[in-house]
Amino acid sequence: MNDISAILQKIQEDARQYGEAAAAAAREKAGAITESYRQEAAAETAKVLDAAKRQAEAIHQRAASQTGIETRNQKLQVRRQAIDAAFHKAMEQLCAMPAQKKAEVYAAMAAQALAGDAALVLNQADRAALGETLPALIMKQCAAAGKTCKVTLSNTTGPFAGGFILDQGSTETNCTFEVLSSSVKEELEARVDAALFG
């Protein structure tokens, strides 16, 4: 009897270790995909920032001859436009990712966010390009992370530029590019401002 208990405990321990190893590997792969995307976005953003910085410096020199609130308002407006242009360009780059890379990024993000079965809501373009394969890829990522999730493609599409929404019945997880960009914008605006005008 003790031998059976020991064998069962060994099987359970092996299964737990395998699950932890699979989850760690999935997190590492998702991190690598995210880092690759961040590096590409940073390179493109640097180009935009350089052009915006030159434009901002020219406008700054013209505004320097003016005084008071008008000068201050012009500077603030230029900064806002340059910052918005940098974020807009980054959004364009996200939306223009090749379909295979986009599918990998979406699957990694979804596998991290999922807590159960979900319907996947995409925009019209991504639904046409990725709709047939993405749910299976997400479920594969979930399985590698030790999660059992059934993902189906929603019959509806969303009016967002990119990313996706996971409809889990009573809850929705919004992983659209607009929401993700908004969530980091406040944190990054100061760094973008410093790069442009610092």
**Overall shape:** elongated
Low-confidence stretches: none
Query: Could you give the count of β-strands?
Result: 4
Order of helices and strands: HHHEHHEEEH
Mind describing the biggest β-sheet? 4 strands, mixed
What helical percentage do the residues reach? Answer: over 70%
Average of the residue pLDDT scores: 82
N-C termini distance: 73 Å
Give the count of helical stretches: 6
Q: Cα-atom Rg, whole angstroms?
A: 23 Å
In what order do the strands lie side by side in the largest sheet?
2-1-3-4
* Class by SSE composition: alpha+beta
Query: Roughly what fraction of the amino acids lie in strands?
Result: 5-15%
Task: Describe the protein in words.
With 198 residues, the protein is of the alpha+beta class. 73% of the residues lie in helices and 11% in strands. A 4-stranded mixed sheet has the order 2-1-3-4. Helix 1 (2-63) packs across helix 6. The radius of gyration is 23 Å and the shape is elongated.
List the helices and strands and how they pair.
Elements: H1 2-63, H2 68-95, H3 99-113, E1 118-122, H4 124-130, H5 134-144, E2 151-157, E3 163-167, E4 172-176, H6 177-197
Parallel strand pairs: 1-2
Antiparallel strand pairs: 1-3, 3-4
